[in-house]
Each structure stands twice: as C-alpha cells, then as structure tokens.
Design a protein that fits this description.
The chain has a single domain (5-190, 221-418), classed as Growth Hormone, Chain: A (Up-down Bundle), CATH 1.20.1250. It has 19 helices and no strands. It has helices spanning 5-38, 42-58, 60-70, 72-86, 100-115, 118-129, 135-164, 167-187, 200-208, 223-227, 230-260, 265-271, 273-297, 299-323, 327-343, 345-356, 360-389, 391-406, 418-426. Helix 6 packs across helix 17. The termini are far apart.
Length: 427
C-alpha cells in the first residue's frame, strides 16, 4: 500500500460524498412528517427541496474559483462545517410560525451554498492526484459515495425518525459532517508534493501521468475561453439530463413509493434503497469501463460515446419502469435506470479534469451548476406532473430529457486541453 496513498484519500472522499448525500436526502424521508407539521402540500414541499438545490447551483462557479484559490483541502473542510452548522436551522422553526414555508425555503438555501464546494473540490483534488488514465475510476469512487450515502440514508433516517422524531435526523447529519470535516483536514493535502506520507515512487508515477502540471502558482482563469468553449457547454448540457433524472430518485422516489404505489413507510425505506445500491455499484464499474475504453479506444470513445450511451440506456429503463404494474418489479426496473445513469457519472467529471487542468474546479462548478439547476426544476416539476398526469408522466419526461441531452456528448472532445489552448491564444 506504500504506493496507494492517493486511493486511501479517494476512499475518504467516498465517505465525504456519502455523508453529503445523507444530509441531502434526509429531508426527503422526513418530508411527509415535516409537511404535516408545517401544513404544506407536495408542491410546496418541492419548493423547499428546490431551495437547497438553487443555493447549491448558484454557488457552483464561485465554489470552483474558491477551490482554485484555497485548494481542495481547506475549501472542502469549510464547506462541510458550513452546511453542518446551518442544516440544523430547519429544526429551530416553530411549526405554528407565520410564513413558516418561506422560512423553510430560506434555511434550506443556505446549507446548499456550503455544499456547493463538495464536487469542484473533489475534482480539483483528482486533477492533482491522479494520472489521466485513472480519473474515471477515481471519480467512480467519489460518486459511488453518492449512491451509498443515499442508500443507507433511507433506512437510517427512517429509523432515527421513528425513534426520536424527524428533527433528530438533522442533528445527526450535522454532527456527522463536522467529524468528517475534521478527519479530511487532518489527512489530506492539496498536492502529492505537500503530503508527508507519500513515497517518491508514487509521486513520480502521479506526475508522469499528469497531462499538465498543477503545482506552482495558479495561472489566471481564462474566463472567456471557458464560457465560449464548445466542450464545456456540451458537457454542461449533458449533465442537465443527469441532474434532472438523478433528483427524481434523490428527492421523490421515497415519496413516489408511498404516494404513487401505496407502500408503507417501513417497506418504502427498504425498497427505496435499491436505486441507490444500483447507483453505487454501477458508478464504480462505470468509472473502470470509461478508463478501459480510453486506454483501448481513445478518449472520445471512453468519455463521449460512452457517456451518450449511458443516457440512452437510462431513458429506456425509465420508460419501461413507468409502465410496469407490479410495484416490486417497477422498483427493480427503475433501479436499473438509476444504475444506467450512474454508469456514466464518472465520465462527466473525468472529462472536466481531462481538459480543465489547473482550472478543473471552475469547469466542474459550471458543469455541476447545469445539473443542479435541472435538479431544482425536477424537485418542483415532478410533484406537479405527478398530481396533474400521474407519476408515470414524470418518468416519461425524464426519459425524454435524457435522450435529448445524450446527443450533447457527441460535441465533446476530451483531447482538447482548455488551458493549453488559452496559453496559445495569449501567446
């Protein structure tokens, strides 16, 4: 293990990612109880869900800029502390308070701002610590934590809520976030050269596999080049589909089982874990497949063609799952759709690191902003579609979004280095 320090660090980011999603999804399990206490309906609850995502999305680009200035070690630590502290604000709102709905919206917006730094930080870390041919696998571990956290949060939060009330889940999430923040700051470093426990062999292996050198003074952010890059916008558009579909599962799947399929709380908590188990497994496998294709077929096949194919498969599973009458079988098929979506998760972030170089954090923030805005739309639109046209319509629309955005991948060239192009323009 002397030459595997980078993998020990990425496994800890897996843990960070899981904790982030425990915090993000706890409100979906507590949503029904919370809505009863505050007298809000499903559509209004969707506004509360959307508020978090809007806070998260609106700070993606600033988060990427901060990561470039402070580094992923400090930035991620501060972000974890921020949302850990502010996430408990929900429990401090008296149920009988006038305008409680809008206060709920406001207090969910603020922790979203803190959580915005999570994945720009992790991808900036990967750009510095992993050779290009390992970035799919590394991102697979990062986002495998998303599925794992979402999976364990369903039964865990349900158990805490049944035993101690829905308010307790927010105190638990906050405490967990603060512990994880402390360990991350103690164990991590921004670059291999700064870490006291790295071997000379591993450092040499990493630096040899980097297409660009991260260490040294950060070059100026080529804002114009970023905002006019076809590659950046194409990946961002593709990630819109990812965010739209993912947040149906993250925000509404638990409620869909209870409201749309008539399944009780205990059974819903168990069945709702299946999409997230599928996400975790497929994310880890998908990162490996993407890197394998890059080594044997080239970057375009390993990132772009592969990413497009995963979205098309996602659409097919959603359409079929929405039509299945048996509740258990429907959950299995829809869980397959969640898995197909996460087969391609690592590719979005790997390709951002591929052509982002030292500006990976900024580009990752822009890409993630597209996904989170789509997630915010999903959070509010899904209950409206379900109320007006039935739950199946929500999955049909998600499938359509996935198919349309799948074509954006064809316009992404992973071999085009953004920073190198910017230097040529400057010269």
């Amino acid at each position: 293990m002397t030459n595997k320090l980078r993998y020990l660090l990425i496994i800890w980011i897996f843990v960070v990612s899981a904790v982030v999603y425990i915090d993000r999804t706890n409100i979906t399990v507590a949503g029904l109880e919370l809505s009863r206490d505050y007298g809000i309906d499903k559509v209004q609850l969707g506004w509360v869900f959307s508020a978090f995502l809007l806070g998260y999305a609106s700070f993606q680009i600033p988060a990427g800029w901060v990561v470039g200035k402070l580094g992923p070690r400090l930035t991620l630590t501060l972000g974890l502390v921020w949302w850990g502290v502010f996430s408990v604000a929900v429990v401090l709102i008296p149920p009988g308070m006038g305008g409680a709905l809008w206060v709920l919206v406001a207090v969910r917006f603020v922790p979203g701002m803190g959580e915005a730094v999570a994945y720009p930080s992790s991808n900036q870390f990967i750009a510095a610590w992993f050779p290009s041919y390992e970035r799919g696998i590394a991102n697979g571990w990062v986002f495998g934590g998303v599925g794992f956290g979402a999976a364990i949060s369903q039964p865990l939060v349900a158990a805490i809520m049944l035993g101690y009330g829905w308010q307790a889940v927010f105190w638990f999430s906050a405490a967990l976030g603060l512990v994880v923040a402390a360990v991350w700051y103690w164990f991590s470093r921004d670059t291999p050269g700064e870490h006291p426990r790295i071997t000379a062999q591993e450092r040499a292996l990493i630096e040899k596999g980097l297409p660009e050198k991260i260490e040294g003074p950060m070059p100026p952010v080529p804002w114009r080049r970023i905002f006019t890059s076809r590659d950046v916008w194409a990946v961002t558009i593709a990630y819109v589909a990812f965010g739209y579909v993912a947040f149906i599962f993250l925000n509404w799947f638990f409620i869909y089982l209870a409201d749309g399929r008539g399944i009780n709380l205990k059974e819903s908590a168990l069945l709702a874990t299946l999409p997230f188990i599928s996400m975790t497994t497929c994310c880890l496998v998908g990162g490996w497949v993407s890197d394998w294709l890059c080594r044997h077929k080239g970057q375009y096949w390993g990132r772009s063609i592969y990413g497009s194919a995963t979205l098309m498969l996602t659409a097919a599973f959603l359409v079929v799952g929405a039509q299945v009458q048996d509740a258990t079988l429907a959950v299995l098929v829809l869980a397959g759709g969640a898995g197909m979506l996460y087969l391609g998760q690592a590719t979005y972030w790997a390709v951002a690191a591929d052509f982002g170089g030292p500006h990976t954090g900024v580009i990752s923030g822009l890409v993630n902003m597209g996904g989170q805005i789509a997630g915010a739309i999903t959070a509010s639109a899904t209950p409206w579609f379900a109320t007006q046209f039935g739950w199946a319509s929500a999955f049909y629309i998600a499938a359509g979004v996935a198919m349309v955005c799948a074509f954006a991948w064809f316009f992404v060239n992973p071999d085009r280095r953004l920073h190198a192009a910017a230097e040529q323009v400057t010269a």
